[in-house]
Amino acid sequence: MKTTAFKQLDWGSLSPLRMKSKTLADGIWAGGHRSARRGAGVEFGGHRAYVPGDDLRWLDRRALLRHGRLIVREFETETERSLRLVLDASPSMDFRGPNALGAKLAFGALIAAATGRVALSSADPVALDWIGGRDPRRLPAMGGGEAFDRLIHTLETIQVGDDISDDLAAVERPIASVARGARRGSAILIISDFIDLPEGALDAITSLSSGGRTVVCLQVLDRVEVDFPFDGPVRLVSSEGSRVVETDAGSVRDEYLRRLEALTAELRENLARRGGRLVRTATDEAPIGVVRRVLRAIEGRTA
């Protein structure tokens, strides 16, 4: 994947933005309920191995002397503030139309990086998981000075993986990992075109909208997919699978657009039933506007 899309966005212009949703605010103002937010809290919650970017104030020096390795002390407060990014790197995300800023995967990676920077500037840890992808590296939730650099490096090096259109486990594995790690008060941003995913994938994805978590799905489409601007005979080849269709563009345009809208509506309705939200974008839109819409959706406002 080429990462030229990262040059399209001025990261400094994002600095005024902050996440203000009630769910994330609960991580600041401790309420009457308890939840296992790990961080600089009020009650000791155990140890774990040090990850670059962790706050050095919580290193356990005695454990270092005893065990010869870096150990971090954890604490519990009432809720967790974190942003969990899930990026689809399946083959359909590699499509790029003639007027797009980049492939859908590159555009999605740009939005993920910008949103992650906003979260980190608010002192909220950020994690990264993948749907599909070639040897993807998962990033655990982390904050601190190194977190943004590690996020960028990982996003820049991801490559599109193999066809997962018939592989539900390829979706369920990362979703299960996110579900285990995302506690009450966390926000989950899933970036995908939601095209050619296996049957049952939407149910697995929308199931994350439970347990006090905020789930936002960003549907990234190319303008060619949104408008289907073809005329005359066309040969359509699926990004995943081996389907080839030769037809007249004018005769299938209405049916294609109807099915695309039905897919989007199904995702939006499934999310809404569980308290989640959908943002839809095209890769020729200004990235800064997309980031603002995503943040508004996380905050619970109209995207």
Task: Give start-end ranges of low-pLDDT stretches.
Answer: 1-43
Distance between the termini: 29 Å
CATH level 4 superfamily of the largest domain: von Willebrand factor, type A domain
Q: What average pLDDT do the residues reach?
A: 75
Structural domains: how many: 2
| DSSP strand content | 15-25%
Biggest β-sheet strands, sense, barrel? 6 strands, mixed
Number of strands: 11
Sum up the overall morphology in one term: elongated
Strand order of the largest sheet: 6-5-4-7-8-11
CATH architecture level-2 label of the largest domain? 3-Layer(aba) Sandwich
Overall helicity: 25-40%
Q: Would you give the CATH topology of the largest domain? A: Rossmann fold
Q: What's the CATH class of the largest domain, please?
A: Alpha Beta
Tally the helices: 9
Main structural class: alpha/beta
**Radius of gyration based on Cα positions:** 20 Å
Secondary-structure element order, as H and E? Answer: HEEHEEHEEHHEHEHEEHEH
